[in-house]
């Protein structure tokens, strides 16, 4: 199992690195309110979502050891499968969180349940943000990095290009290379295209005549839009014409 982590200098970094005092009386008190948080005092306190995101990023494990070799850390469950000084990484992360906050004993069980959900959601969110950031960096100012072109005509930065643009403050070279290999797999790329199509179909996409397509239009867009778009435009004139006709029928 991985036992290392990257360390930054932000205020939510592991306590041995940030020099912050955390006397129990100084910690803000939190209480789970549904899937959100009540924080007291509110104005002067750091907020749980900010700390959760920072801890995931700062304590992100390098890799997961599996029978088939090292794999990238992609989920909160993967945090549980790695260790820091003999303790599972998720427990270390939670320890760091509770060093910064406190809650009443009767509120702790509910707070822990909400924390589990928040960390589960935060891991893929942080990874998605890192991927967007590196892609934006590679294509900045009109630059075009080395690309792969898939069977549908989509252009993707190569694994090597992604690796070359590693951020200085996130994971190790080994951990980053494993992530880039994952992002460059055909399985991930296909799921990325599908997710984009679903987002487009679910949005109230403006048509040429400005008419909301409605449910029928969204279905048409999702089911007849061919793979192969990189910029959100319709793939061909035939589909574009159908798209406008759906808008006219909804008007």
Characteristics of this structure?
disordered C terminus; 10 helices; mainly alpha; EN-1/SPM; 251 residues; two-stranded antiparallel sheet; two-stranded antiparallel ribbon
Summarize the structure.
Helices cover 49% and strands 10% of the residues.
Structural class: mainly alpha
Q: On the 0-100 scale, what is the average pLDDT?
A: 81
Work out the number of β strands.
8
Helix residue percentage: 40-55%
**Low-pLDDT regions:** 1-12, 17-21, 204-209, 223-237, 242-251
**For the terminal residues, how far apart are their CA atoms?**
59 Å
User: What's the number of helices?
Assistant: 10
So what's the overall shape? Answer: elongated
Description:
Residues 1-11 have a biased composition (Low complexity). InterPro entries: EN-1/SPM (IPR039266). Residues 1-29 are annotated as: Disordered. It is a single chain. It contains 10 helices and 8 strands. The protein has 251 residues and is mainly alpha-helical. The chain has a domain at 29-200. The longest helix has 31 residues, at 108-138. A two-stranded antiparallel ribbon has the order 1-2. Helices cover 49% and strands 10% of the residues.
């Amino acid at each position: 199992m991985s036992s290392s982590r990257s360390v930054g200098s932000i205020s939510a970094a592991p306590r041995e690195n940030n020099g912050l005092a955390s006397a129990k009386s100084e910690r803000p008190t939190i209480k789970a309110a549904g899937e959100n948080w009540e924080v007291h005092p509110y104005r002067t306190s750091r907020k749980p979502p900010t700390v959760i995101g920072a801890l995931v990023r700062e304590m992100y494990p390098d890799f997961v050891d599996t029978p088939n070799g090292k794999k990238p850390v992609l989920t909160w469950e993967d945090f549980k499968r790695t260790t820091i000084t003999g303790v599972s990484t998720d427990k270390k992360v939670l320890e760091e969180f509770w060093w910064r906050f406190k809650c009443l004993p009767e509120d702790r069980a509910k707070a822990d349940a909400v924390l589990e959900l928040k960390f589960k959601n935060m891991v893929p969110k942080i990874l998605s943000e890192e991927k967007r950031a590196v892609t934006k960096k590679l294509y900045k100012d009109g630059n075009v990095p080395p690309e792969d072109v898939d069977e549908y005509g989509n252009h993707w930065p190569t694994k090597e290009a992604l690796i070359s643009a590693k951020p200085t403050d996130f994971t190790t070279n080994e951990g980053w290379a494993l992530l880039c290999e994952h992002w460059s797999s055909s399985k991930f790329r296909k799921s990325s295209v599908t997710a984009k199509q679903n987002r487009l179909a679910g949005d109230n996409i403006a048509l040429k005549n400005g008419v909301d397509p409605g449910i029928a239009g969204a279905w048409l867009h999702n089911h007849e839009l061919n793979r192969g778009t990189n910029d959100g435009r319709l793939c061909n004139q035939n589909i574009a014409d159908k798209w406008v006709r759906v808008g006219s029928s909804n008007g």
